[in-house]
Amino acid sequence: MTASNPPRDESTTASKNRPGGVPLGGAHLDSTAQLMNRITSQLGSQLSLVSLNGTRRPSPPALVLVGHGSRDPRALATVSTIVERIRELRPHLPVHLGHIELNEPLLPDTLASLARADQDGTGSAVLVPLLLSRGYHVKHDIPEAAAAAERLRTRVAAPLGPHPLLVETLYARLVEAGWRTRTTEVTRRASAVVLAAAGSRDPDAAVDTRRTAQQLAERLGVPVVPAYASAATPTVSAAVRALAARGRHRVAVASYFTAPGRFATECAGAAPWIAAAPLGAHPAMARLVLHRYDQAVARPETASDRELATA
């Protein structure tokens, strides 16, 4: 599963092939078609909330996407784009954003706002961490914020990683940066990838990152070594040196970060060859968020419904 090409606007394409580049029905036809598509989507969203006997189905739990937060404005722009893509994929689903730190809205504020909007006390939310592995934020910060939310039933989904959709996104970003999908055996033997991640003192985070590295290695057919920007070893530079000592001089850096920021920039700067962009707002990211949401919703409700979903 590689990055899909954006859908083509067939009316625009066709117009370019006509003399003068004028659409057969003019611009009005295009705008009318777009309006009808929007109305159809909204109508389908409303009908999905009505059961076969005509009664209104219970509203689905709100999806609260939990971002880490960053001082880099590109990070907030990226996360906001992911939110919009989630809404496009599932128009009937209430989607909200909350940050652990550094950006507004902060997660407690988002949950408090949802609770205030809940008129009958039956509101619920699923918190989906926009994080790539288990660690302190996933195990402590997010569940504590969920538990503190008054008048709101909450569940915490699993972090995004490890998952095959992340591997395909990493692969797509590497190809965008210049990784060749077909190489000679000599080139392959000289190639490798450093999977650059944020790092954590939690050993489970390292386990999750290593699993992603193994899956990416299987996808690429070359060694993939995990490395970290902080709190864990090796660093990207150390991993590059270790690979060079093994005869791997054609080393790319895969950016295992959800969005641009200081760590991603520093790790890319240590690349001896190509450095891929962060995962960003790749279409697979929105699909993966919804997958984690669906997993959490599907779990039977128990006294421990705030525990993490199984990855």
From TrEMBL:
<feature type="region of interest" description="Disordered">
    <location>
        <begin position="1"/>
        <end position="28"/>
    </location>
</feature>
<dbReference type="Pfam" id="PF01903">
    <property type="entry name" value="CbiX"/>
</dbReference>
<dbReference type="GO" id="GO:0046872">
    <property type="term" value="F:metal ion binding"/>
</dbReference>
<dbReference type="InterPro" id="IPR050963">
    <property type="entry name" value="Sirohydro_Cobaltochel/CbiX"/>
</dbReference>
<keyword id="KW-0479">Metal-binding</keyword>
<protein>
    <submittedName>
        <fullName>Sirohydrochlorin chelatase</fullName>
    </submittedName>
</protein>
<dbReference type="GO" id="GO:0016829">
    <property type="term" value="F:lyase activity"/>
</dbReference>
<keyword id="KW-0456">Lyase</keyword>
<dbReference type="InterPro" id="IPR002762">
    <property type="entry name" value="CbiX-like"/>
</dbReference>
